[in-house]
Every structure is written in C-alpha cells, then in structure tokens.
Amino acid sequence: MLWCLWTPLHAAESLAGDLDEARARWIGERIFANECNLNVRCLTSWNAGEDFPSLGIGHFIWYREGQQERFRESFPELLRYYESRGVMLPDWLRTMTPRDQPWPDREAFLADLDGPQLSGLRTFLDETRDVQARFIIRRLQRALPSISAHSEEPAAVESLFRRVAAARPPLGLYALIDYVNFKGEGVAAGERYRGQGWGLLQVLEYMHDNPSPSPVLQRFSEAAAAVLARRVENAPPERGESRWLAGWNNRVETYWPEGD
Q1: H or E stretch at 54
Q2: Which of 39, 42, 150, 207 has the fewest CB atoms within 10 Å of its CB?
Q3: For residue range 5-52, what is the model confidence (pLDDT) as tens digits?
Q4: Cα–Cα distance, 235 to 242 (Å, whole number)
Q5: Distance CA 90, CA 17 (A)
Q6: pTM of the predicted model as reported, rounded to 2 decimal places
Q7: Cα→Cα distances 121→83, 112, 126, 249, Å
Q8: How many whole angstroms separate alpha carbon 53 and alpha carbon 247?
Q9: Helices and strands, counts by H and E, the chain
Q10: Which residues of the chain have pLDDT under 70?
C-alpha cells in the first residue's frame, strides 16, 4: 500500500509507481489551481519582476541561452520527459536547437502571447496536464535521497517526510509534491538568501526544530509559512518579495484544509 510507512530506501520509489491515476490527476489539478486558478491562459506566463517565463501547470521556468539565475530551470527537463513518454512536441519546440527560450524580454513574450507559438503551446500544455502531473510527482520521487544527504539530521527528516506523506491520503503527498514543485528541495547552494534556503528540506528541519503536538499536516503548513516568511525577510529589498507572501500563505494553507 502507498499510504503505509515505508523504509527510507524505498520511500521515494513508491511515490511515482504506486500513485493511482485518479489521485495523480487530483494532485495535478490542485497544482494547476494553485499556480493558475485553473486558467488555461496562465499556462504561458511571464510574471512582472521576473526575467523568465513560467509555463505549464507547475509554472516550469525556462531561461534564455546563457542565462544564469538562482532558481532551478525545469521546462527543458519537462520537454525531455515528454519525449521519454513518446509525446509529440509542437513542431517549433521539437526542431529547436538549442532549446533555450527565444524571447529576449517580457515585453516580447507578451507581444507574442496570442501568436501561433504561444497559443499552440497553451493548447498542448492544456491537453497534456496529466503528463505534467506525473513529471511533478517524479520530482518528489527523486527528492528524498538528496534531502537526506544534505541534512544534519537525516533520520529525523526522513521520519517527518514519511509522516507527512502518510497523513490524510492523498493530502500528505499533495503537500510534499506541491511544495517541492513550488519552492524546491532546498538543497541547491544557489537557492539561498543570507545563507538560508526555503525548500522542503528547510520546512522539515523547521518542524524538527520546533516540535509540537499539533497534527502533522498543520505543523507542515505552519512550518512552510514560517520558512517562506523568513525567505521574504532575507530577500534583497529590490525583489519586493513581500508582495507574494499572502498568496504563498494561501497556498500552504491548502495543505491542512478544515483541520486535520
């Protein structure tokens, strides 16, 4: 059974292989709602204040050639995943070499929003939401070994991971999968402000450092909110990240709906 406690070596492998299609689709739709409020037009976005487009239900990041940023680029990896699953890409993406995003800036992207490339890409992304959900789930499948390797308390972190995953199926897995897609594993050295990260590792470590008798999904939601508040406090002022915090808090509150 997926929902039992598993050994650390097999926890991550169980996620993608055992999650049934209905629950995988439900998780994908929740992520689509979190990122886009289920709005298909939002599947091709370029947020104000950012230097890259965000695409698909998970708002996968795509960089220009040679672009270096602190956040993990994920859209090219999604394209490779499509191909590994035998999914035919739109012609312009399939023949693109190298696969770097072609718009020089947000203004050029917005000017092309209703052009054939982006309108066709939106249709493709809308029709393949289930594949994107599996891609997002696979990221969590691969996350636990890396998180454990980067933690000073790997046994405690693994235990909390398993407890969250097993809580109120499928909410616990949704919380883990969504947070990793949303803010990452927390292991990349570049994803730090003032030396502090904001990924799943940091959320689990916060739970470990702040024990509580509260239900585990409540603790996870509250820890995520605390880690995100710390990120905003540490962020460079010119990024103005406080404008996103209310939305982030609304998102992590979905991990513990109507009590546990």
Answers
A1: strand 54-55
A2: 39
A3: 333 334 444 554 468 899 999 999 999 999 999 999 999 999 988 999
A4: 9
A5: 28
A6: 0.89
A7: 15, 12, 8, 30
A8: 19
A9: 13, 3
A10: 1-18, 258-260
